Amino acid sequence: MAFSTADLTNIEAAIATGEMTVEIDGRRVTYRSIDDLRKARNIISAALQSSGVAAKATRVSYASRVRS
């Protein structure tokens, strides 16, 4: 199954709003829980990253210090 960035956007919007029914790859899918939606998001994201469609997320952290 080939996923699109629109599929990922639809899943992320559903997670944000709590909607359980999402359109993915032209089909309407109803999930049982937010956890299932998150699992689907991770699968779609990994598929897009492996196909080169989506860039991998970069984690950046900054050091900080407290001045006395």
Describe this structure in words.
The chain has about 70 residues and is of the alpha+beta class. It has a domain at about 5-50. The protein is about 45% helix and about 10% strand. The protein has two helices and two strands. The chain has helices spanning about 5-15, 35-50, and strands at about 20-25, 25-30. Strands 1-2 form a two-stranded antiparallel ribbon. Strand 1 and strand 2 (about 25-30) form a beta hairpin. Helix 1 runs antiparallel to helix 2. The protein is elongated.
Task: List the topology elements.
Elements: H1 5-17, E1 21-24, E2 27-30, H2 34-50
Antiparallel strand pairs: 1-2
Helix pairs in contact: 1-2
Short description:
Helix content is 44%, strand content 12%. The chain is built from two helices and two strands. A two-stranded antiparallel sheet has the order 1-2.
Helix/strand order? HEEH
What's the gyration radius in Å?
16 Å
What is the terminal separation in angstroms? 57 Å
Largest sheet, spatial ordering of strands? 1-2
Low-confidence parts, pLDDT < 50 over ≥5 residues?
A: none
Q: How much of the sequence is in beta strands?
A: 5-15%
Number of helices: 2
Largest sheet: 2 strands, antiparallel
Mean pLDDT rating? 85
Structure class? alpha+beta
**Helix percentage:** 40-55%
